[in-house]
Amino acid sequence: MVATAFGPFPDEVVVDFDALTAQGLFLIHGPTGAGKTSLLDAICFALFADVPGLRDRRGIVSDHAAPTATPSIELEFTSGTRRFRLHRSPQHARPKKRGVGTVDAPATVTLSELRGVEWAVVSTRNDETAEVLHDVIGMGKEQFAKVAMLPQGEFAAFLTAKDEDRRALLEKLFDISRFADIEAWLVEQRRESEAAVGALRAGIDTDLARLGDVLAASGVSSGSPPVDTAGGPHAGTSTNAPAPDRPAADELAVDPASPEGIRAHLESVGADLDQHLSQMMVALDAAIAVEGATAERAEQARAVTALRQRATTARRTLADLDASAEELIADRARLDAGQRAVSLRGHLATIQREEVTLQGARQALDVAMDSVSRLVDIFSAATDGAIGSPSHPEEAGTLFGRPQDALAAMHGHDDALREAGRLSESRLHRERRTEELIALIEKATRVLGRADADRASAALAVTSAEAMVGDSADAVASREGATVLAAAARDRHELARRTVDDAIKLDALRRAAAETRTAAQDARDHEQDLLARRLSQMAAELAEGLLDDEPCPVCGSDDHPEPTTSRDRVSGAELDEARRVHAALVQAHQDADARATAAQARLEHALQVLDVASVQEIALTSLAEAAETAQRDLALISDRAARLQASQQSLDSARARLARVDESVVAAERDLAQARTISGQERSADCHEATALADLLKSHESCPCAPGSPPSTGRTLTLSADDVAMVREITATHSQVIRLVEAWRNASHDHEVAETRLHDVRADAQSAAHEAGFDSIDGVTHALMMPNELDRLRDRIQGHDRARAAAQSVLDDPEVLAAEAAEEPDVHEATADAARARAAVLTAQAAQTEAATARKSFVTVRTSLLKGLDAAGPALVRHHRIKDLADAFTGGGVNNTLRMRLTSYVLASRLDKVARLANERLRIMGDGRYTLEHSDRLAARGARSGLGLRVLDQWTGVSRETSTLSGGEAFMASLALALGLADAVREESGGFDLGTLFVDEGFGTLDDESLEQVISVLDSLREGGRAVGVVSHVGELRSRITSQLLVRKTASGSTVSISGPGVESAA
Description:
The chain is an alpha+beta fold.
């Protein structure tokens, strides 16, 4: 085990238990508080991630260790034929890597298993590791702490504890969950049964109370249900509460006679309720008949009164209508004129629409004339007032005459203006081409001027690039050889390094082969010994198969007077296991020897390749320097070779540049000749187009759009340098004048058409008005009304006529005439009679409904009560059966005289076995005087029993309490009990062998003779193959136990050291 920064140990502590347990018995000693028990805590923490007992695992990190130290436990242990290594680190605080303060480092675990000669990681997860360890060890932390680490203080308390306290420890060590589940299930069934019986009783009590409420509400008198005055209601038929000292379930005692009485009482009550309901129904029918007669008389009185009121209202209506007769005549005349004017609404709309059209045409004409007038002003300003400004827009006609003639004259100049525009644009484009030719000539002249210098520079670049390409090509040719030399130097150095390592490994392989050979020889000797013992025991094995009155398979006799026996029997399984171990070790030796032979062959081959006689002659430093030199030479050559592609690209670029210089000279000479030829042609064409343009502009002076027209104004045009802008301006003015004159012409035409249509529409409307009876169109306009106004006037007249007809029809109605002739009835008295009759009906209905509700409620209560009575009997029988079982299994009840729980009974059997196993050791330690006995005597004051322990004094024959033992006797008894308990738990957990036990303290109470006897018992454990570690500060033990682990404490923490035959170490 290796512990770091754990408990009182600040540094790394190494404990070799293989060396410490070589003698079988070893001592862990040191002053109080040094950390003896902390070593056991470290083992327990490594296995279970926790410490035993009440100690807090948060305190296991050493306070003496440096802040940067990582607490950890590494434990190697063997279980059966498997060997494991467990490395566990608890959660702890460590300094931050950046800044100040600390952070929490999580807990980690690594479980490895030795497989062959290598460690294989099994798990790095806490939960998975716990499962694997439980399967390997076969017990949990509590069991391990009690079985492998025997805490004498706790077992001394266990020896004298009460039954329930002893039970708490045994439950942790033995699995009794199945029996505990049975106890819990029975307790839960008892609780549910009590609840079910209580619910039945409560239901019956509630139903009886409800029955009383139903009878009280219905007013039917009936006798009370029969009850049992001796013990409460039979089957729960009384509302009296149960006695305080008896559970509700016991109060529900069924009496066979009482339920029948309740059923008879229910039948009587049902008959009374049926009779009462019939009486209420008869009274309701009589009240309904009286109500019908009074209601009919009241209705007749209200009808006569209503008819008389209708006649009075009709006469008042006729008088009001006659008062508004003159106003109605005027309304009828307005309605007639309005209806005739409706048919002329379309003519009026047409007139209004044409007036709007004429107004729009007049406005458009004014706008067109105004635009023409502004044009005249512009022309007048252009000719210095020679034309004169018109005083009215209509006077613009003096300039253009008829718009149609002016448009024809202007359109005659359209083609000439388009040609003038084309010629001016052509001259503009020619001027731009001339400028481009001049620039081309200048560029070609510059190219030809610097052609010689560019050609010389390009030729020099080609020469330099060719030299660089030659150098890179030489490097490429030599790179392959340099690569081979560097690889050879590197391989030779690597081979030398591996050869040195192989020489070191060869020694280890030879030692491993020797060790496996020795182990194989030991295993063969062990196998031969077992075989010889097996053969010597064949007679005893045959004797075991002999049966009385059966012949012996050897001699044939039926009489077997003294069959041979053997105490130390060698079984066939043991012999097979020894053979298997021997074969495995032989195979391991052969494998180790083969590995050593192969390593020797590799070493000899490497020495031959390196051309040295031994490993000592290998100069690793010189070989490494040679490999580095070759690698540097290769890097330089590779760098020069890598520039080959770049040098070739530079050469290609230089040659292309020289070719481009030659091509540019040829192109410049060609462009110069072409530009000079084209420039002469362009100048000749420009002179011709300038003359034609001047002629076209001269001819346009006769157009009406030209300022100074007619030609008598004497305006003369000359060709200017900016002829393109001038031609564009003349063309724009020409187009604008055409658009204005066209708008003037169109507006004049639209105005004339609108005036003609308006005159025609007015004539048609006047004719239609005369036909409809109107004198003029204005009369139609005055009579015309909106549709909603016309509808209101029509509705008013029709409403007047309908009201007069309705009033007159009321006065002519025979029923109204008859009502006026009859005597006026007393409506108030008739209504009061009907109300009194209605109240009587409601009272009768309420009584009948109350009787029906009582009958329905009674049926519901009776059904529920009878159901409860039927269920009470079986429920009580089941409850008593379950209650008796549950009480007995939980240590109570009249049937469990020992007051022993089921789990206690199971644990009692385990405790009895523990006592038997403990007595085997106690008999030796105590000279056979004392024997531990399991006791099931009743505990005082009703406490649970069954887990008692007593000690039998064989010298006196008296059985007494364990608390009467002396200190030394109590220690021996508790130690024996602890060892017995360990054996019992080991068998319970599947027979897992514990190779090492620890006994913690308690030896100071023994005298020399008793101490010698205890040590002899511990030695007997060693003979069974187990090692025993004694934790004690008793000085006498140091002389008796030679293998010792000493724990020393200082102000800076504790340390350990191991001493013994052939062992000496310190940590």
